[in-house]
Amino acid sequence: MPRHQREALDVPQGRHGDQYRPFAALIDREKRPGCGHDPLVTTEFPSATILGYPRIGPDRELKRALEEHWAGRTGRAELEATGRRLRAESWRRLHELGLREPGALPSNTFSLYDHVLDAAVMLDAVPERYRGAADPYFAMARGADGLPPLRMTKWFDTNYHYIVPEIAPRTAFRAVADKVLGELAEARALGYETRPVLLGPVTFLRLAQAAPGAPGGFDPLDRLDDVLDAYGELLAALAGEAAWVQLDEPILVVDGGSPAVRHAYRRLAGLPTRPRLLVASYFGDAGDALPALAVAPVDGVAVDLTHGVPRNLELFEGRSVVGGVVSGREVWRTDPDAARARLAAAGATSVSTSCSLLHVPYTLRGESGLPSGLAFAEEKVAEVVALAALGPKAGPVPVPPRPAGEVRAESRGPYEARAAAQRDLGLPALPTTTIGSFPQTGELRAARSAVAAGRLPVAEYEARIEAEIARVIREQEALGLDVLVHGEPERNDMVQYFAEHLDGFAVTRNGWVQSYGSRCTRPPILHGDVSRPGPITVRWATYAQSLTARPVKGMLTGPVTIVAWSFVRDDIALRDVTMQVADAVRAEVADLEAAGVRVIQVDEPALRELLPLRREERAGYLAWAVAAYRRATSGAADATQIHTHLCYSDAGEVLEAIDALDADVTSIEAARSGFAVQEFSRGIGPGVYDIHSPRIPGRDEVVARLRRALAAVPASRLWVNPDCGLKTRTYDEVRASLANVVGAAEIVRKSLK
Ligand code: MET
Ligand SMILES: [Zn+2]
Q1: Is residue 688 part of a domain?
Q2: Binding site membership of 486 for ligand 1 (Cβ less than 6 Å)
Q3: Distance, CA of 586 to chain centre
Q4: Is the CB–ligand 1 distance for residue 205 below 6 Å?
Q5: Is-annotated flag, keyword Transcription regulation (predicted)?
Q6: Other residues' Cβ atoms within 10 Å of the Cβ of residue 540
């Protein structure tokens, strides 16, 4: 059902959204006696629950507490106290919202940094090299003097990043239950009987990586039985303490792994002393994995019903089936009819969110100017409670919106003709450039909040941006870079800035979502048809170009990245949403071109992020993602040089798609992830140094990297650039690093002749 119609079912939202009483009219109607609907056939599992909750704090209290602690201004005890306060406040709020049955409130979903890292600690899977650190937990998360942190990567297809555990053939697993028992006792002292949530053993091992030095062919999953021993100890410790334990196995929605699932849950469910086990799958359809799980005597399963009703659920008849009908990842109100139909079709015995609410902001309270029809975490909890009261009701189960029609990837002229038309840019061999942003100074950030708060006149703010652009141009000319950038000083964020300048988007005041550790993002909300009321970046790009004779690269964020880092509407297919954004970017490309900008970069760092978890869906996604990028860029004349940029990910998996973007030049993170360049048929700039670290790359080291790249790519197509934008670095670091980069390019260039 479209969102505007959904509205009619709800009591109107109060001024700040604090009056959201979901489905109030429906509840009044259906609660009358004789108004036949199936009540939930609840087993002992609570009728309403959520799989997890945000933990950064409604006002990012944890972020602040962590950063104070890391800066050495507070001790561990103060940090723990903040954690305790945040947990107590969450339980209190959830209880108030209606999660009142024993076991309805989750515990152990709090984390000081990351729940996968917590699971590693819970199993004592702490690599030896961290054990001597002053604080092994934060050393694994963030590194400690001389000790790099563990790797971090994306949690399934979300924008949350987890710490990748390292498992060796000899990792000595054992149960370390203090955190889980501690939270349970803490909640009990406050009067709440909670349900501890643990990351499941199969997901834990499949997300882990083999420790460095492990023999080739070693797979962390080889250690399943040893890990299960530790889970056995944990469950034994929890047996007298909690009625239910939730084991999170989102890996159930990913291909493969049935034998491990079968084995793991037969063993765990067969333990002589254990609480009841709820196995939670999420982020998609677990249908393929359910038979393997059902053969084990686990007591219940939680399934994601937001995209449909999984097959094989009848195998769980007589056990608890927790229906995740309220999306934990999207920000729209739930359609009660659709949700109840799904609960009925699934034979659900309880109602829940589809996944943890970690991925949405806390609350609509305090927001204004947002479109109607939204629900954040608190509002979603109220929906879960209301749906449990209403119960299932048979009806048509809606299918997700289908893309409208076909899209074909539009093309520019052949690359050779473009390269010829671009020759008058006058670039040397191995042209040097940067990825777009220059250091975002504290003054810039302060000016941005001042102008937003009305404390700084707009004209004054814009003058400061221009002054910053002038400085960035001067710096680059002094360094001797070939293709310059304006430095992006006007941008708070590469997606939010565009969202603020496009119709169809809204931005929240306080809608923060944890990205990793203390880092949060405030994803814009794409709620309507997207269009571009006017040029967005042209003014800054042309100002920058007016200051220099060297080419200045216009800088845009690509359509796939804009949708990947936003909450998007759910009433049309993602592909069609992305195409609308692509049209807006295309118009911006045209305006930049018309204003004389000859080089335009359209960034797509999130191309890999949206890759579907299931292999069978990947080719379809990549085809439309490429088509969207090409819709955005294919209007450019041959003489306009189109760049793209990718980072953050194993580009290796999507190399063909990156090539299919057909950009004239692709800059790609390489220094950190050691990416190989051979496959590229056009200009390629494998990053020559890691911008995530304050370390200054040596000139010789860059020379060596360039020589290595030249073994695979002809000099006519090799570009020289860092891994990513420089906004998190200081000017001192940037100057020193780029001087070595430019110096290295000169040395290698000379040796070519
Ligand atoms: C995460 S990719 C960032 C690209 C952007 N142009 C920047 O330099 O900041
Ligand atoms: Zn980047």
Answers
A1: yes
A2: no
A3: 25
A4: no
A5: no
A6: 23
Ion ligand 2: residues, Cβ under 5 Å: 605, 647, 724
- Asked if the model's pLDDT at residue 1 lies above 70, the reply is no
Q: Are 347 and 399 in contact (CB under 8 A)?
A: no
| Statement to judge: residues 296 and 430 lie in one domain | no
Which CATH number do you get for residue 277?
3.20.20.210
Residue nearest to atom 7 of ligand 1 (CA): 725
Confidence of residue 145 (pLDDT cuts 50, 70, 90): confident
| DSSP per position, 492-532 | SSTTHHHHHTSEEEE--SS--EEEETTEEE---EEEEEEE-
- Per-residue pLDDT, 12: 38
The reply to whether 207 and 254 lie within a common domain is yes
Give yes or no for a contact between 688 and 724, defined as CB atoms under 8 angstroms apart: no
Q: Which of 390, 405, 425 is the last residue of a domain?
A: 390
In whole angstroms, give the CA distance from residue 10 to residue 163: 40
Q: Could you report how far apart the first and last alpha carbons of the chain are, in Å?
A: 66
> Is position 511 within any domain?
no
Q: Which ipTM was obtained for this model?
A: 0.99
For residue 384, what are the contacts with CB-CB under 8 A and spacing of at least 6? 48, 49, 50, 99, 326, 351, 352, 353
Question: Which residue, 546, 541, 543, 581, is CA-closest to 561?
Answer: 581
Shared domain for 424 and 379, answered yes or no, is no
Rounded Cα gap, residues 144 and 133, in angstroms: 7
Closest Cα to atom 9 of ligand 1 = 725
Q: Quick one: DSSP state of residue 538?
A: H
Domain count, the chain: 2
DSSP 94: H
Active-site residues: which are they?
692
DSSP H helical ranges for 44-177: 61-70, 76-97, 115-122, 128-131, 136-142
Same domain for 372 and 420? no
CA distances (Å), origin 667, targets 413, 434, 641:
21, 9, 13
Distance 555 CA to ligand 1 centre (A): 9
Per-residue pLDDT of 267-311, as tens digits, reads 999 999 999 999 999 999 999 999 999 999 999 999 999 989 999
Comparing 254-258, 276-280, 536-540, 577-581, the range with the smallest average pLDDT is 254-258
403-435 pLDDT, tens per residue?
Answer: 998 999 999 999 999 999 999 999 999 999 999
Q: Is residue 671 predicted with pLDDT exceeding 80?
A: no
What range does the domain containing 712 cover? Answer: 415-442+471-488+537-563+584-752
Residue 288: C-alpha distances to residues 261, 265, 311, 735 (Å): 11, 16, 7, 54
Contacts of 26-35 with CB under 8 Å at 24 or more apart are 26/336, 26/390, 27/386, 27/389, 27/390, 30/390, 31/389
Q: Provide the sign of the torsion angle of the four alpha carbons 547, 552, 558, 564, taken in this order.
A: negative
Distance CA 323, CA 302 (A): 6
Q: Which residues pair with 194 in a beta bridge?
A: 105
475-509: string of b/e by CB count within 10 Å (b at 16+)? bbeebebbbbbbbbbbbbbbbbbbbebbebbbbbe
Q: Which band of pLDDT confidence, cut at 50, 70 and 90, is reported for residue 14?
A: very low
pLDDT, the chain, mean: 93
Ligand 2 geometric centre to CA of 602 (Å): 11
Same structural domain, 427 and 380: no
pLDDT of amino acid 33:
54
Ligand 2 geometric centre to CA of 648 (Å): 7
